[in-house]
Design a protein that fits this description.
Elements (H helix, E strand, L loop, with lengths): L5 H5 L7 H15 L8 H17 L2 H10 L1 H4 L12 H13 L3 E2 L5 E2 L5 E7 L1 H6 L1 E12 L15 E2 L8 E6 L2 E6 L8 E2 L12 E12 L8 E4 L15 E7 L6 E3 L2 E9 H6 L1 E7 L2 E7 L8 E4 L15 E8 L6 H16 L6 H18 L1
Parallel strand pairs: 3-11, 13-17
Antiparallel strand pairs: 1-2, 4-9, 5-8, 6-7, 10-11, 12-13, 14-15, 16-17
Helix pairs in contact: 2-3
Length: 375
């Protein structure tokens, strides 16, 4: 099958800059990487095709030869064939600086940063607002104590790989070009373990469960993330450990709902208190407070209690508590109570519409609506 134009593969113009080439390649490599498309041979082929195109166009001399002679000008100077880099090495070379991939330690040995970990922490609203300290247990890979992470049995040491002389890479000459690939004997480690540690079986890391105290700052909310540096999995070959990310999930509260730094709650008000006014005790996260209810309060009225909400985790500002009045219709009335309400209704009817302005206004609107329909 004929090879596609390298510029077409990357989706860039022929005068694309190095930065544009790199950006296009990273986008394609992320999309088609085999780890994200397990078992998809077409995606792996596209990944390798993008790698080949980038290798040619990112090299000034190769790009000039390609621009003048096309694929014939670069022949087999790139690609995943003999002497080419494997998929893992390709990904490390492009994304290692972003995702903590392989790097070279002393003597050329490849070291790897440990994986980051995630923990979902459920908190009550009270703990999220006030802040707390929570102990959590995290299963992870830790450095083997039997070999101090070397992978070699105690009393022995890893030997330098004879194939790559400890560099982890070997070079192969193809025409005018010298290509570098991962050493096939030590797989890029630069060392060979002849007598592996029995505790970790030569891996340098073992599974363990660690208890960690997480300090939760006051004011955290759903979706907030707490980063604990170096509490992820141990690195390989002396590489740095990853980080632990604690994701906060605040449980639903029986009384309050949260909106950023504000709290909301519904306050049931009796029929008589709403009409005549009065005073109620309402809860806050700091204790009970008195709330004055003015006469003629309607359902839906909102009373704002300043600074009774949540202090922001990112500043010293504090939100408010918003109390939503809900006028409660009396239920389970006795015969006498029903008669009293009927007397009240008759008395209010004698006053015309002044006692129920909202109902009167609504009825006028309904009448106008039907009049307009029939006109």
């Amino acid at each position: 099958m004929a090879k596609r134009d390298y510029y077409e593969v990357l989706g860039v113009s022929k005068n694309a800059t190095d930065a544009e080439l790199k950006k296009a390649y990273r986008r394609l490599a992320m999309k088609h990487h085999p780890d994200r498309n397990e078992g998809d041979e077409a995606a792996e082929d596209k990944f390798k095709e993008a790698k080949e195109a980038h290798d040619i166009l990112s090299d000034e001399r190769k790009r000039a030869a390609y621009d003048q002679f096309g694929h014939a000008g670069v022949d087999n100077s790139a690609g995943p064939g003999p002497g080419g880099a494997g998929v893992g090495d390709i990904f490390d070379s492009v994304f290692g600086d972003i995702f903590g991939g392989g790097a070279r330690g002393g003597g050329g040995q490849r070291v790897y940063r440990g994986a980051d970990l995630r923990y979902d922490m459920a908190l009550s609203l009270e703990d999220a607002v006030a802040g707390t300290t929570v102990k959590i247990r995290i299963p992870k890979l830790v450095e083997c104590t039997g070999c101090s992470g070397s992978g070699a049995k105690k009393g022995s040491t890893p030997a330098t790989c004879p194939t790559c002389a400890g560099q982890g890479q070997v070079r192969m000459q193809q025409g005018f070009f010298s290509l570098q690939q991962t050493c096939p004997q030590c797989r890029g480690q630069g060392k060979i373990i002849k007598d592996p540690c029995t505790q970790c079986r030569g891996q340098g890391r073992v599974k363990d469960t660690k208890t960690i105290s997480v300090k939760v700052p006051p004011g955290v909310d759903n979706g907030d993330r707490i980063r604990l540096s170096n509490e992820g999995e141990a690195g390989e070959n002396g590489g740095p450990p990853g980080d632990l990310y604690v994701h906060v999930n605040v449980k639903e509260h029986a009384i309050f709902t949260r909106d950023d730094t504000h709290l909301h709650c519904e306050v049931p008000i009796s029929y008589t208190t709403a009409a005549l006014g009065g005073e109620l005790e309402v809860p806050t996260l700091g204790g009970r407070v008195k709330l004055k209810i003015p006469a003629e309060t309607q359902s839906g009225k909102v009373f704002r209690l300043r600074s009774k909400g949540v202090r922001s985790v990112r500043s010293s500002s504090k939100g408010d508590l918003l109390c939503h009045a809900v006028v409660e219709t009396p239920v389970n009335l006795t015969k006498e109570q029903k008669e009293i309400l009927k007397d009240l209704e008759r008395s209010m009817g004698e006053g015309g519409t002044k006692h129920s302005p909202q109902a009167s206004s609504w009825l006028d609107g309904v009448k106008k609506f039907f009049d307009d329909m029939t006109s």
